[in-house]
Amino acid sequence: LTAADLLPPDTNTANMVEGVHLLQGELRYYHYGLQGFADHGWGCGYRTIQSILSWLAPSELPLTIPKMQALLRETNGSSFFGSRSWVGVTDAVQILDSIHDATVIVRTLKSGREAMSLLPELITHFDLGGGPVMIGGGSDVYSKTVVGVSEGLDARTASLLIWDPHYSGVASLSVADSSASRNELWNGGWVSWKPFSTLRSDSFYNFALPRRPQRPIARAAQIEEIGAADPRWDIEVVESSAERDSAARATKPETAAGVDWASMFETVASGSAR
Questions:
Q1: Which end of the chain is less enclosed by CB atoms within 10 A, N or C?
Q2: What residues are annotated to the active site?
Q3: Tell me: the pLDDT tens digits for 249-264?
């Protein structure tokens, strides 16, 4: 699919006064329950990452959730494997870098009220061929997959085109040739324009803006081997990212390119709490 294939019918309404800027290239819409895997209530971040991976390598199937968890365990020793803990933008950066050596720009906002300040950068990002944008937050714990932006005069008229990873039906599998499937996604609000003002003022946000790597890297086959020797898949609740954040703050934070990654962890929790 392309972002244009699922462009909501209200795209040309009067509130979009300045223009629309869409993701370029093909990708798949990943959301709860795909691949026969029950991740309802906790897997939205993983599904956004899968959508990004499908854009980076359209001819390949992205890693499954268990294999992404195994990769996080291999790269940073986390205890995600077999858990229902949510993942955020910093985890996405590690996965995208490990698999595709992708460049990911991370922007952190103290409040959703600041989101309009990123509109020019988001426009440029999509116009220059950047990938799906992942949004993760603090009080707003719901991951968002952004595939376009519309310009506007303020936060009520400028909008984000979101493919919601919390959808759990099957309409996404037939949108290419079924108007009924497209209408289900549009009418249910699962694929829709959301004004910038919907981002909460009481939550901080991380925006991940991925770009294609400047040089190809073939690691998918190697990554597929991670965790293959461990057939265990018993779901257990492990520490949340909030707890990992607290532990990280108790020690000297690791930094990369001058960024304090510990301060950028979204506030998340186990799926059982959702």
A1: C
A2: 44, 164, 166
A3: 333 333 333 434 333 3
